[in-house]
Write a structure and sequence with these properties.
This protein is α+β, with helices and mostly antiparallel strands. It contains seven helices and six strands; from the N terminus they run ααβββααααβββα. The chain has a six-stranded mixed β-sheet, with helices on both faces.
Length: about 250
């Protein structure tokens, strides 16, 4: 078990801002599809992440290091906090589910999600305060238990490189007709299929975004019944500031 109470992002304000960014990006993607009058739309098949990734990048590029990882023709973004060395990986829920539900095989292919999960090895194996980057074993080290584990370690080098990472969070979301359905953050166990070390549902911060609406949103997906009045006030204030900033930028 992890010896502390982990959290996604550094503040409530950042959580709200992040979820709102996903909502805005999902709506922009849906509007873009509807504006295309072409008889076929193959280029949009299963594609809802570009606008989401762009809005997240625009809203967090000043406070996080954000880069793009590409594999098999598909891109996803990673957000890195230099202060606490946490890495946040944003992908669709379907991609995550596909990997944790897939059958183990003996192939040489290792999915990037397994590399991200392996970075949390020191958390799931040793219940002490997090310190330092995971040390990758050398090829001749007898601690390498299996050939498969060695392949995963090689994948870690490919995916993470020399970045000093303390903890990896996998953030997933799903969208339907431009509406953000849910957002979840998981700290995966080093064995991706095992129960996550920590899981947080951030869906309560979802607000439906409408470009034609001058308010924060048209409806709140989940009532904030468990939040104090003061916390609700902080959330709404944060959303209003974000909406105001977007409106100011659009007027320029």
């Amino acid at each position: 078990m992890i010896p502390l109470t982990p959290n996604t992002f550094r503040s409530l304000e950042e959580k709200v801002k992040f979820v709102e960014s996903l909502s805005i990006g999902a709506k922009l993607n849906y509007e873009k599809k509807n504006a295309d009058n072409g008889i076929t739309k193959n280029k949009y098949r299963n594609g809802t992440s570009d606008e989401v990734n762009q809005v997240v990048y625009d809203n967090f590029k000043d406070t996080y290091l954000i880069d793009v990882y590409t594999e098999n023709g598909f891109d996803h973004i990673r957000m890195y906090n230099k202060e606490d060395k946490n890495l946040y990986v944003l992908i669709r829920e379907g991609t995550y589910k596909e990997q944790i539900e897939s059958k183990e095989d003996e192939s040489l292919a290792v999915h990037y999600l397994k590399a991200y999960a392996y970075m949390n090895w020191h958390v799931s194996k040793v219940p002490i305060k997090l310190t330092g980057q995971l040390m990758l074993f050398g090829e001749d080290n007898n601690e390498i238990g299996t050939h498969k584990e060695h392949l995963v370690q090689q994948k870690v080098r490919e995916v993470i490189g020399n970045v000093d990472v303390e903890l990896v969070h996998i953030i997933t979301y799903d969208v339907s007709r431009g509406d953000l359905l849910f957002v979840k953050s998981r700290i995966p166990s080093s064995e991706l299929r095992h129960m996550p070390i920590y899981e947080e549902d951030m869906s309560e911060f979802i607000v439906t975004y409408n470009n034609q609406d001058e308010t924060v949103g048209s409806s709140v997906k989940v009532e904030h019944t468990e939040l104090s009045d003061e916390m609700q006030k902080q959330i709404i204030t944060g959303l209003l500031k974000l909406k105001g900033k977007e409106k100011d930028n659009s007027d320029k």
